[in-house]
Specification:
heterodimer, A: mainly alpha, 5-stranded mixed sheet, elongated, B: Rossmann fold, 7 strands, about 60% helix
């Protein structure tokens, strides 16, 4: 395939590349402010990457998580990062590659926008809007998040679907992507949902179906569903439909699927894209009835329903919503400018554009920076890293370390020790009981009660950090004493105790 | 791209394929076990029905005047919450066949015979409904690939006979002949003697047929009268479920891929929904059948998972129509069509194979047979044995003891309270509580297998009752082999300190 660009195409491609470089630069600016990562999931991913790098395989049978369990996940993203780690090391690959992947979304956004509007300048503006989606920016920065790959691939698939009527090559690319995407993440099931909702909308609105679209939607539905069932068969058998909620304990389910206020949604999504995206959908419904806008509208509708019914994780739901609305902001912008040009104050068009730019910068751009900064601030501190390294160097290899659930992956990834629980509850029985037990072991008043649970989980060490203090609203573990739980490590905010007693001789 | 999957289903000998798959899928669960040396029937329910048929045969032997076709004997089941053995005509068939060949072989072959016959009759019914040949064959294929079908006709259970007789009765009903009609009345009357639910299924079927054809209203009324009369005089329960899962979840029970015992593959359900959607503009022709299917579906909240045995025909028909529609349509892209059809077939096969794989490992294993036989030799019939309700029938049939709780449920008999008691005993770490509950319920032995320790009841080694079992004054380990433990509860040696 030979690319022949006209001068104009070259100009816009160059501008797009500049935008890509700007996005990447800003990401690197934040990411390299710390030599750690944010969130325990990042370290779990890093551990997988390092294992793939050394053995060629991910860790499916994990002896450390939950003191021994079976992981079920799609390793494609981990393999991609692991591949690059061969040339630059795990740390650099984990810092660089997710951000590069996340930034490639700019190109996809441009392509979709161009498909919707047929105008390069407006498409570039859309790409610019999509560069600074606060929730997407902060979720994919410094977290080694699979969403860095999911979002660009997801919308690339949508882009090819938009073009299926133009040429067979796009059909083939769509078909090819349908084979690849289920291997990346189970979240691609939402692609099926969005496409099916699109079918319903088209049926209601146009009454006449595009048979090629119908066939490809059926094909994608069958293929993706089959892949998911094949791969997650054990999870479905184990958890039934609770797989949707990833078997999270009911106690943390509420925080994962919590309600979001309109103001929070504005901030996370971006005020201007939110308003403009909604305007584009409204205009499509009443006037234009553009099938392509209907497609994006279907995804917005689908994700909104899932968020409302708490069937999708808040983070992913908001990212999808934000991205869809940001893309739709492009056609909305174009409509607004076209309308403005027809008014008597059309001479103020440039002022209006500058006004929009100021609003966008002061909301979305600054919000992206603020959220990213917040994400970087939440990265692991040196104190925590030192404590985990101490555990690694000073405890027996088969030790079990109690920590909060959000620190569990850090125990297994950095300290390389067994944890009691971490945030991945798939294929774990009685997740709510385990959650309660962990909480109890931090909040019990009396040693005997605690020892019963400590023996149940064969705990050798207790990691007590400011996270535990905040989570359980405690200043110290009340039953801890020198005889049974001598303090073996201490720093400003972290204590590590060794469990020496058993029930009956305490 | 190359059309690497270019396969015309219509040119294939689908009848031969249906017969092969039927034989294969019905025998495969047993075949895999036989190779590993396990010749026992699969599932606890099979053993329970064999025990009932055996009891009927024993009644005939011990009482020469006993007429197997006469009044069924009142024999108590070996279960804590007293109930009479629920004999049905299936157990009579099994006992008759069991007098010719060994009862275990009879229990193996009888449901399969009913399976073959049911499929034959169902095919005849579809022909009478003028279903086009290819469509009909696809429907039959969908039916035999259904996990609900495999369950019904692979494992000994009365529903295999009831389904066959219901289909036979319906076939006789829709034939235009008074002798066939008379036969259908007799058959329906016979079937309705099982439960009221079965009588209602018959009525729903006939009403749907009358609505569909606009004929035979009087015939339907006559059948309704006889069915009502039999149901009233026989005083049958509203429903009877031998495989009641006690903690059933509607969605999980209907989808075998999510663990449903008598469920359907996900793709079958998807195609069934598509079938209704594709043909919705012609809904007048099938709306009553659709409503009947929905009513049967919602009755699962009362009856339990066994309704899926009757639902499978509706699912197969709807899914078959959907598949045929997709297959016969001219797709714009042949490649996409071929891959889609291929994936659908793979998806259907995957559900069936996955289900067969699961049931092949069902109890009883050889290890558990040895353990139950140990119980039989060391425990008396009156000794109450506590275990998970899934082991209940094994305890009664092979173990020869009294099960604290099993999987039986009917409209007049509910073991939910006992399930809660059992769960309390299993989960408690308080010795006093455990002793009190065990004593109050006269439990003598506790049967624990590997499945119970691996998530069915407990997850961790010292969880709940497992922690208390180390108390040698209260519990005595009398059997231990290959992950199975039998503990004797010693109430007389306990002193509360």
């Amino acid at each position: 395939m030979r690319f022949r660009f006209s001068k104009l195409q070259k100009k816009y491609f160059l501008l797009l590349c500049i935008l890509f470089v700007i996005s990447l630069s800003i990401r690197f600016y934040f990411v390299f402010q710390t030599d750690q990562f944010t969130g325990d999931a990042a370290y779990a991913t890093l551990r997988q990457v390092e294992n793939i790098r050394s053995t060629g395989f991910p860790i499916f049978s994990d002896p450390l998580s939950f003191s021994g369990r079976f992981h079920l996940f799609m390793p494609v993203f981990h393999y991609i990062v692991a591949f690059f780690s061969l040339f630059m090391g795990s740390f650099w690959a984990a810092k660089i590659i997710p951000n590069v992947l996340a930034s490639t979304f700019i190109f996809v956004a441009y392509l979709i926008a161009y498909e919707l509007m047929g105008n390069r300048r407006d498409s570039l503006i859309t790409a610019f809007i999509c560069t600074f989606i606060p929730v997407y920016f902060s979720s994919t920065i410094n977290k080694i998040s699979v969403y860095s790959l999911v979002i660009p691939l997801f919308f690339l698939t949508i882009y090819y679907f938009l073009k299926i009527s133009q040429s067979k090559k796009y059909v083939h690319r769509f078909v090819l992507l349908c084979f690849i995407i289920p291997l990346v993440s189970p979240t691609f099931i939402f692609l099926v949902l969005g496409l099916l909702i699109y079918l319903v909308f088209i049926k209601l609105e146009y009454k006449k179906q595009n048979w090629l679209e119908l066939e490809l939607i059926l094909f994608a539905t069958f293929l993706i569903l089959w892949f998911e069932f094949l791969f997650f068969k054990t999870s479905f058998l184990f958890h039934g439909y609770s797989v949707i909620w990833q078997n999270l304990p009911s106690q943390i389910l509420s925080s994962y699927f919590k309600d979001v206020s309109i103001f929070e949604a504005f901030t996370i999504v971006g005020i201007l894209p939110f308003i403009m995206g909604c305007f584009a959908m409204y205009k499509c419904q009443l006037k234009d009835k553009d099938r392509k806008i209907y497609l994006l509208r279907s995804f917005v509708f689908g994700i909104t329903i899932l968020l409302w019914l708490k069937l999708v994780r808040l983070e992913f739901g908001l990212i999808m919503l934000a991205v869809c609305l940001s893309i739709l902001a492009g056609p909305a912008y174009r409509s607004m400018i076209s309308y403005f040009e027809q008014t008597k104050i059309s001479f103020l068009k440039n002022v209006f554009i500058v006004f929009l730019l100021i609003v966008f910068i002061s909301t979305s751009v600054l919000a992206s920076f603020a959220f990213s900064s917040g994400s970087i601030n939440e990265a692991l501190t040196k104190e925590e890293v030192d404590a985990f390294n101490w555990i690694k160097e000073n405890t027996p290899q088969d030790s079990v370390v109690l920590s909060t659930i959000s620190e569990g992956n850090l125990i297994s990834s950095i300290s390389m020790r067994k944890n009691v629980a971490d945030m991945n509850f798939m294929l774990i029985k009685d997740s709510s009981i385990i959650f309660e037990d962990v909480k109890s072991m931090y909040t019990y008043m009396f040693k005997t009660e605690a020892l019963e649970l400590i023996e149940k989980y064969n705990i050798n060490y207790i990691y007590f950090s400011h996270n535990a203090k905040n989570e359980f609203d405690i200043e110290k573990i009340k039953y801890v004493d020198q005889s049974c739980f001598p303090e073996v490590y201490s720093s400003k905010n972290i204590r590590i105790y060794e469990s020496k007693c058993k029930l009956g001789n305490g | 791209m190359i059309d690497f999957i270019n396969f015309d289903l219509k040119k294939q000998n689908l009848i031969a394929l249906i017969v092969v798959i039927l034989i294969l899928f019905l025998f495969l669960p047993y075949f895999s076990r036989f190779i590993n040396g396990n010749t026992y029937l699969i599932g606890s329910e099979s053993h329970y029905h064999t025990m009932l048929a055996d009891e009927l045969m024993n009644q005939k032997i011990s009482n020469p005047g006993f007429n197997i076709f006469g009044v069924l004997p009142d024999v108590q089941d070996s279960v804590y919450l007293s109930r009479s053995m629920s004999f049905s005509f299936y157990h009579i068939f099994l006992a008759i066949l069991g007098s010719i060949i060994p009862i275990s072989d009879a229990a193996l072959f009888l449901p399969m015979i009913f399976g073959f016959l049911s499929l034959f009759i169902f095919n005849k019914i579809l022909i009478l409904f003028d279903i086009e040949e290819f469509n009909r064959k696809i429907i039959l294929l969908f039916l035999i690939l259904s996990p609900a079908f495999i369950y019904t006709f692979s494992f000994s259970n009365p529903h295999s006979a009831i389904v066959f007789l219901t289909l036979l009765g319906f076939y006789c009903f829709i034939k235009d002949n008074k002798y066939w009609f008379a036969t259908s009345v007799l058959i329906f009357a016979f079937v309705s003697s099982f439960t009221i639910f079965n009588a209602l299924v018959i009525l729903l079927l006939l009403i749907s047929y009358v609505f569909y054809t606009g004929r035979k209203l009087n015939s339907m009324l006559v059948v309704s009268l006889f069915v009502g009369l039999v149901t009233f005089t026989a005083q049958t329960p509203f429903f009877l479920n031998y495989s009641f899962t006690h903690s059933s979840d509607f969605f999980i029970e209907i989808v075998s891929d999510m663990g449903g015992l008598i469920g359907f593959g996900f793709f079958s359900l998807l195609l069934a929904i598509m079938g209704v959607t594709f043909h919705w503009k012609n809904k007048n022709s099938f709306i009553m059948f659709f409503i009947s299917a929905l009513l049967i579906l919602f009755s699962s909240f009362i009856v339990g998972n066994s309704i899926n045995i009757y639902l499978m025909f509706f699912i197969a028909i709807s899914a078959g129509f959907a598949f045929t529609t997709l297959y016969e349509r001219t797709w714009k892209l042949k490649l996409v069509k071929n891959i889609s059809i291929f994936i659908l077939i793979l998806g259907l096969l995957f559900s069936s194979v996955s289900y067969i794989n699961r049931v092949t490992d069902w109890e009883p294993s050889l290890d558990s047979i040895y353990a139950f036989e140990f119980l039989k030799n060391n425990a008396s019939k009156e000794d109450v044995i506590l275990s998970h309700f899934e082991n209940g029938y094994f305890i009664e049939s092979i173990g020869g003891g009294t099960a604290f709780v099993d999987s039986y449920a009917d409209s007049n008999y509910n073991q939910k309270f006992l399930i809660k008691v059992a769960d309390t005993i299993f989960s408690t770490r308080d010795l006093k509580t455990a002793k009190t509950l065990l004593s109050q319920n006269n439990i003598k032995y506790i049967y624990i297998d590997e499945k119970m320790k691996s998530g069915l009841v407990w997850v961790k080694p010292d969880e709940g009752l497992l922690f208390l079992l180390r108390n040698k004054e209260t519990f005595n380990l009398i059997y231990q082999a290959n992950g199975i433990e039998i503990w004797e509860f010693l109430p007389s040696k306990n002193k509360i300190r």
